[in-house]
Amino acid sequence: MSIDETAGTRCGAAPWTLHVDRALPAEPGLRAIAREILTATQPLPIVSMHGHVEAGLLADDLPFTDPASLLVTPDHYLTRMLVSQRVAPEAVGLRTPGGPAPAEPRDVWRTFCASWPLLRGTPTRYWLEHVLVEVFGVTERPSRESADRIYDHVSARLAEPQFRPLELLDRFGIELLATTDSSSSPLTEHATLAARGADHVVPTFRPDVAVRLDGAQWRDEVARLEDVTGRPIGGYRDLVAALEERRAAFVAAGARATDHGAASADTRPLSPSEADCLVQDALRGSVTKASADAFEAHMLHEMARMSAEDGLVMQLHPGVLRNYDRAALGRYGADIGYDIPLPTDFVRGLRPLLESFGHHPRLTLVVFTVDEDTFTRELAPLAGVYPAMRLGAPWWFLDTPDGLRRFREAVTDTAGFANTTGFVDDTRAFCSIPARHDLARRIDAGFLARLVAEHRLDLDEAVETAVDLAYHLPRSSYPPLTGGRSAGTTSARVTSAGEPGVATADGSPS
Fold first, then answer.
1. pLDDT at residue 149, rounded to an integer
2. Is 277 helix (H, G, I), strand (E, B) or coil?
3. CA distances from 253 to 131, 189, 474, 481 (A)
4. Domains and CATH numbers, the chain
5. Distance between CA atoms of residues 426 and 364, nearest Å
6. What is the model's pLDDT at position 505?
7. pLDDT tens for each residue of 415-428
8. pTM above 0.85, yes or no
């Protein structure tokens, strides 16, 4: 028998289903209002403008191989919880060069199901429940006993044509999906997708490796930039010109945004000659961390200048100490859960950028944080006065039911709703995209229901606001650049000294 045939009768248990009112307010009066608001947003398409699904996954459009490699191993929210409870990294599929082989997919799945109680109360549990029940039709909870039955059921579904990546993209109602791509990416996968008619998948320009001079991959990224642009990079001027050329290629491929994961929010500019000295040091292999920090800050200022010219929305999310455990980084690689939030000074850090471009009519700067103390004290007041600045949704460690709710409570008084940009799922877990957007819409419905119950909004206003938050704000915050593609082809601004200059708010070189 299949899982669907047995789950409802095993031990007399009813089939596993999800409550229709999950994540809505517990108070009956608020819940009734929230239901009505949610009804207006549930059918809306998904606009996913900040995520990390690989473009190659969609371009290849191959069947997923097994449930564990799709749902467990790449989900660092999940694996970090299990590792914190002394589950061996190899047991969840992580690879160690020269070390123990990772467990087989079925064994990884068994470990996950046996560890299901560890996820109680976490957003990971919410997302996985949605994926298992709503996407794959699983009808019994994960457990040691049900692991093999669920594995076989999900494996069978993955073999069906409607579970291939592009089919799921349509099934999930994803109207627009932005991937994240390195500055040197030739965007081959996006060309393949466009040729297949999947032009609702767009790239996002991510130059972090190219502007972090002390990074282990900086020299390799410079070499890749040289290959893809056909120009040698012998100094700062060449690097800026190469990055501008790549931005133009991203715009031509349909990109709407850039993405910057800097160590801090510092945006102090350097003089062109100072910046060139730092690049020359890096080319010689003698750059210091302090110099790399200064150059990264300068390049954030430069990226704002470029966005003011080509119209790409600039997304900034600083303040995470990535790959905190150096031994784990060496054994298993990056992005396995060892990333820890840091306090972030946005007020002083963003001041140079905002003084130069905060009133520029063509710049949109979307700022994310994992330091939620800054929402009320720093970010909402800044977004509430600078026309160029918008607040990004709660991200990463704050992408939780209570974190999403605290965000609305923290920023609405000062920044309102219009200075936010809608929800972003920020996920590599493709099948969790609809789950994450569903949760955000439910939390917003609950928040707006309270405003209605307190007679601070009429119901029709609350419904309209919910629709804006779910759909219209992300669409308007990340507009297409079809009318401004030529603006992305500008070469580096050159001062009378023959070096790239720092632009002022009106676009003229300083």
1. 98
2. helix
3. 31, 11, 19, 10
4. 65-163 (1.10.2020.10), 166-489 (3.20.20.140)
5. 19
6. 36
7. 999 999 999 999 98
8. yes
